[in-house]
Amino acid sequence: MSSSAPVWEALPADTQRRFIAVRGALVLVEGVGVALLATALDARLALLSLAGILLLHLALNGVAWLRLRQGGLGALELLVHLLVDGAGIAALVYLTGGYANPFISLLLVPLILAAVTLPPAHAWGLAAWVGVLYTLLMRYYQPLALQVSAEAAVDLHLLGMWLNFLLTAALVAAFAGRLAATLRRRDAQLAEAREQRLRDEQLFALGLQAAAAAHDLATPMASTRITLDELRRDYAGDDELERPLHLLSAQLARMESVLERLGDVARARGQGGIQAEPVDVWLARVLEHWGLMWPDVGVSLELDSRLGLLRTDTALDTVLSTLLNNAAQASPDDVAVRARRQGRQVVVQVADRGPGLDSQSGKAPGWGVGLELARGAMTRLGGRLEVDERPGGGVLAQVVIPLADAEPSGEGHE
After folding, report:
1. 374: CB partners within 8 A, 6+ apart
2. C-alpha–C-alpha distance, residues 116 and 265, integer Å
């Protein structure tokens, strides 16, 4: 947990569950230790007092479990629990030999939990608390009377230290290790989110530039359209000028189509909402629109049956149009489009017979900013874009898109 988090804000549920599990294991170890002293070593103990402390410790852990179900413990509340844990361990040690008891180092367990869970100020406060408890136990305690020789008592003390070390190591590995792994996963997710945000900012900047360019071009293009229409009327039937004027009108219509598409994207973002349409219908629509700009390019289309439904997004239209544009520039006589279903995704391939990928850049000639924007758009939509060499020559671009329907692969749209 960050040191800047509010003290009353609930800790993550996973952290609280591990905290409760470790405390439960600690109570179990305390109970087993008392039982061994009373039975195997025939020690004279205040069993009622020890049992009361163990029950109190167990009840406090039960309170933590109930608080988790009600919304969770905050940092300050957890600190209070750990302070009471330290006092409970100190009370058990007070009744079982004081600082001579090798299990006195169990006072480190609440401190470890605080160090990996709470803000630094809370952890330092708990460190001071357990330090005070340890110091008091050096002077105030009830001696432990064992029915063994002095040599055996020393061996038992060393054995207790060994067991205590193993126990503490196990608790640290079980709690601190798991928590550190959780923190590493969170850091990785944050790093990925930062990278995604950077990509989004770059795409947003490019989008603003595109919108500004579209706005600036709208007026001169409208004037050009009026002028061209007048020229075509004035020179109708002129064999020398009719063909160039027709070509200029076609190119102007293409630019107007691009501006209209930019406007459609802006309107779709403003309206919001998600709709779905069959994959084959989406492909037919995009290819029809694209074909108006590339009327002389031959495109072959191959569709598998039952492709399913796709969430409509103008970004998808732009990605496919970009791939088609690049393929048409590379080989206008041979552009192949194929769509197939793959589980909960649809795979759309755009292939050409152009010069292929450059061995140094890994891109085909002309595949620059448009391809990077397409990659960013697919990442945002939960899909991916892959570009590779096509067997036999050319480039094979593959778009993997999540489907909107949750039907099995054999029950999609036909």
Report:
1. 318, 319, 322, 323, 385
2. 48
